[in-house]
Structures are given as C-alpha cells and as structure tokens.
Amino acid sequence: MRRTVFLFGVFLFAVAVGFFISLRAPKTVNASAIVLSTGAINNYGGNGDLFQDIAEANDFRAWYIIAGNSVFTAWTDGNVWGSDFRDKGSPNDMDASGGSDKAQVYYYTGHGSCPSSQTTTSQVDFFITHGNFGKPDTTHIPTASVWGNSGGRLQFMLIDASCPTELPEITQLFPIFGGLHMVTGNSGDVNHDTQDSEDRGNEFGAQTAGTPFWFLPQLPVGDAWMNTGLIDVQDQVCAVAAAAGDTRDDAINRRENERVTSGWGNPSNNWMAWKWVCK
Amino acid sequence: MNTNIKKLASILGAAVLAAALTFTLLGCNKPSNPETSNNSGLSPEEQEIQKKTKQAAVESLGLKLEGAVDAGHKDNFSGLRTENITFTQRLDSRTYIAYDKRFSNTKQTGIYKDADEMLLKRSHELLERLKIPSAEIATERVVQEKTQVGQRESKTGKLKLDPIEPGKKWALTSRQIGGVPVFSSRATIGLVPNGDIGFLEVHWPEIPAKVIEEARRYRGLVEKGWHPPEQKGTRVESVTVGILHSPASATALDITPVIRVVYAPLDKHIGKKPVSYFNADGKPVTMPRVLLQPPREELKTERVTPKG
Fold it and tell me: Using 50, 70 and 90 to split pLDDT, how confident is the model at B157?
C-alpha cells in the first residue's frame, strides 16, 4: 500500500511537471525570431521617381517588429546601394552597414528592369538602385548575386520590383541560392508591369510575419506571395516564388510550406522548385 | 512506525496531487473543451464579440473548428484559432481573413480541381454570406498557379526540367460602387479539394456616401479635362478616379476619394510604374494609414561609406 501510494505520488508529480513545462516553454523562448532588412527607393533623382515604396517597406517592417523580430537595416533612397546585392567586389552583399546577405529576410522595393516581352531571352533580371555609393546601380541577379554563401545569412530574398524574377530567365536563378532558401518577385514586361503600391508590401508583410494576438495567420512565403503579389499589378503580370532544395521533394516542400520562421537549414542548390500565378 | 510512514506517504501523495492540479489550472490558458473558448472574466460586450466572431467563422463561412479553440480580441481584431484554422475579423470593417494551414500542404491535402465556374460560384456564395453587396462586384476571375521543378547537375550545369503542373486556384474579386472603383477593396479566396475554405481574405469596408459623392465630383473634373501633374522621366499612362482606403491588415480605417495617376517610365527598360494619388486640386492626398500606432524605430538616415 505504502509503495503504491508513493509511486502514484511520483507519477502525478512527473505528469504535473511535464505538463507545466510543455505549456510554459514555448511562451518564454522566442527561438523563431528573425532578423530582417529592407531597402526602399522612391528617389531616382527625378527620373522615374516612385511614391509608395518607402511607406511600403515601413509597413512590411512594422509587421515583423510587431511579431517580435528585429531589424538589421532599413535603408532608403541613396543609402540603398547596388553593391548591397552583389556577391563580389567591395563593398558587397556582406557589407556590415547594409549588405543584403547580413539578415535572414531582405525586402527590396524599388525599380527593376522589364523586357519588351515575356518571351525574351536577353538578360532582364536587374535591380536598379540610385545609390550614393556602391556603384553601379544596376545588378544582374543571376550572374552577380549569391546569397547565403561564405557566412551570408540571407534565407529569403523578397523582391518588389518588376521584373527581376522574369519567368523566361527563371532557370538562371540556380546560382543565387548559395544557402538562400527562397526568392519571390514578379514577372512581366513593359506593357504588363507592377505598379507602385503600399498595400502589396503591407499585406505580404502581415501574411509572412503573422500576428498571433490579432489572429492574423502566418502563411508560408510562397502562398503569401501568390495571393499578395498580384495586388496593384497590370494584367498578365505574374507573381513568382522559387525555392531551392537538397532533393526534389525538399525543394517542393520549401516552396509550398516554408515560413520565414520555420528555422529550416540551408538547402543546396541542386534542385529548385518554383511556382507562379498570373493576373 | 509503519503507521507514520503510511501517513507520510498519504500526505506526500495528496500534496503532489494538489500541486499537479494547481499546475494544471495555472499553466493551462487554452480551453480543453473543443466546443468552448475560455471566456471567463470577459465582460458581456466582450463575450458578445467572441460569439459574433464564432458565428461568422462557423455559420457564415462554414469553418470546421476541431479540437481546442483559442479565441480573443485586441484592438479592432477579433479572432479564433484551432490547430489548423486561423480566423480573424475586423470590428471596424467588413474584413475577414481565414486560413487553413492544410491548404498550403498540397502534398498531403491536394489541390482544388473543380472547374473555375464552381470556384466562382462558391466565392459568390461566401461573399453573400458575409453580406457583401453583389452589386458592388466589379470583376471576378480565377487564376491558377503553375508549378515546375528543375535539377541542375552541379558538375556540368546541365538542367533537367519537369513538366509544368497546375497548382492552386484563387478567385479574385474587385470592387466598384456605381462605376467608381474602390482600389483597396478585394476578395481573394482559395479552396481545399473538398470545397472548404483554404484561404479567404475579404476586405470590403462600408464607404461613406459623402466619399462616393466626392469621387463622382472628381470624375466629372477628370472628364472635363483635369490635367495630372507631370513627373520627370515619365509619361502619364492612365488617370482613374476611385476610392482608396486602409488595407485589410491594419488598425486604421481611413477612406478617401482619389484621382489615381499611373506613370510609365520613359526608359522602357525600367520596371515598376510610379503611381500617385491626387485630390481635385492636383495635390497629393494623405495616404490612408495602416497602423494607428506603428512600432517605434530609431532609423538611421545617413549611411557611412567605407574609406579607401
């Protein structure tokens, strides 16, 4: 009897402690918090200036801050350099003052380049900055950008600029995945283009960051971009999301299910799975 | 001696049991009953908010809340959450967001394969249940994702591409009121294979009559030859009168009539078209706010250039 009571007591104590720990631990450790950067350009020196991009980046960043993440850099206009997106040269994407490979998430909003048609085979995936340093301002992503390599931290490169993830050039994006998990962007052409928009970045930020106390759901990056990447775009513009993977299934799984806070390891770039949806 | 040990063991057992119960009660802030949320301590008004939120989720949208339901509200949002489903609605707007995380896991869940017409019919039905006026629907369309996988041989760089496959379908709905487009309103709906909601975002706030009236006045001015301000390095591509308001994910709800001007860069290689919103005087409008209290940031304004 004595032994039974004692064992029962030990059992209850163990259950209680285990239950208590299981409930408390996730609330006291925010292991999934990430570091993000934004680069937003309105001022192109009076040559095709944009109007909404800085506000758009502010909104995007706000959701991440509210969700408990931290900001590495949030440069605007001339402080966003072309070199921030290039793997080679000096400075480059590892520049401590704002290189894009220093954060886990980088959200770029500004001009890109668009081809005359979506069937082009010429190089089209360019960032176009208007920097006060780190020239040139144009960066051809497939040949000049590699993220997540050599100590780089970037996992998600989120591009709000048409059209640096042009579908005809999509297979040329393999080299950018030096550890990078996903890239998102738009595909279009000069007559089917994205428009300057504050809403697009706001909604994308809200959906990827998630905000538990407002019950805003956190979507995988791919799904979030598929339904927000078509906000304020012209007909025939496509939202594109591409993920690297160690295997075919890994790449597909990341494309469909990876969230910015999933905490998954860096993939190799042997496989790439992508999806797109067009308006 | 034996009696004392028995007493000690009994006391220890009772103490541990009490501790277990205490831990359980204090540690658990999630309701264990699948049918109810933990709304003890809420005022009658707050309970009413939760009740209406659950009604919108279950009765209007048909969300199946299985297992424990966590419910609550903060600021202008009231929502609930189960293991798979998250639902939130705004208390200051006809704004609803629902997401079933199984929707994303297409490998396990599959994709909705019914005809586009069926998706549009279901979209209509859901909008109707949310009391969205059908007369305000401007355009509806179904877009479908396409997916592809490629492998690159690391040594040779040779590419192998799988065939393109169909992906998720999304029903997109835009809004107008009496011919005036409401640029910021939209409905986006995706379904899981059995027709249940996979993702839904409906943002359709009520627009005050005076805003619509003012927008119509703007339209009259544009028809009479209102000229948009020029922007260097661009040409005016389009001028459209409409209504702008705060987005779905927001704690603010500002609504304003605008004249939207889309500019096209003269350099045709530059992508992303500048868009500016003006009032009838040709002055930029104050853009609708997103967050009433944005998080405070100490942003640097000058970036130090490397020396040498």
Answer: confident
B191 close to B112: Cβ distance less than 8 angstroms: yes
* Interface residue of A102, A167, A215, A230 to substitute, partner B, most B CBs within 10 Å: A215
Rounded CA separation A234/A227 (Å): 15
**Could you give phi then psi for residue A152, rounded to 5 degrees?**
-65, 150
Question: What number of residues does chain A have?
Answer: 279
Which residue among A50, A128, A160 places its CB closest to the CB of B274? A50
Q: What pLDDT, in 10s, does the model give residues B271-307?
A: 999 999 999 999 999 999 999 999 999 888 899 988 7
Peptide bond before B228: cis, by omega within 30 degrees of 0? no
Q: By CA distance, what is B235's nearest residue in A?
A: A48
Q: Could you give the CA distance from residue B109 to residue B191 in angstroms, rounded to a whole number?
A: 11
Over 60: is that where the pLDDT of B32 sits?
no
Count, in order, helices (H) and strands (E) of chain A: 6, 10
Residue B233 sits at φ, ψ, to 5 deg, of: 80, 10
Q: B272, B278, B301: which to substitute to probe chain A, counting the most A Cβ within 10 Å?
A: B272
Write out chain B residues lying below 8 Å of A171, CB-based. Answer: 150, 152, 159, 161
Contact A165, A148 (CB under 8 A): no
**List of residues 6+ apart from B72 with CB closer than 8 A:** A213, A215, B37, B50, B78, B79, B80
Residues 6 or more apart whose Cβ sits within 8 Å of residue B146: A275, A276, A277, B164, B165, B166, B167
**Cα distance between residue B110 and residue B103, in whole Å:** 8
Helix ranges, B78-153 (H): 106-109, 116-129
Contact A202 B249 (CB under 8 A): yes
Letter string b/e over residues A229-259, b meaning 16 or more CB atoms within 10 A of that residue's CB: bbbbbbeebbbbbbbbbeebebbbbbbbbbb
Residue B6: pLDDT band (50, 70, 90) is low
The closest CB to that of A276, out of B103, B106, B145, belongs to B145
Q: What is the mean pLDDT of residues B246-250?
A: 97
Angle subtended at Cα B210 by Cα B206 and Cα B214, rounded to the nearest 5 degrees: 115
ipTM score assigned to the predicted complex: 0.87
Model pLDDT, residue B142: 98
What is the model's pTM?
0.88
Asked whether the beta carbons of A125 and A115 are under 8 A apart, the reply is no
Cβ within 8 Å, pair B232-A49: yes
Whether residues A252 and B149 touch (CB distance < 8 A) is answered with: yes
From the CA of B223, how many Å to the nearest CA of chain A? 23
B23 contacts A17? CB cut-off 8 A:
yes
Q: Chain A residues with CB inside 8 Å of B145's CB?
A: 226, 275-277
Torsion angles phi and psi, residue B143, rounded to 5: -115, 145
- CB nearest B143 (choices: A66, A79, A277): A277
- Judge: B88–A215 Cβ closer than 8 Å, yes or no: yes
Nearest residue of chain A to residue B190 (CA atoms): A227
Determine the residue type at A137: D
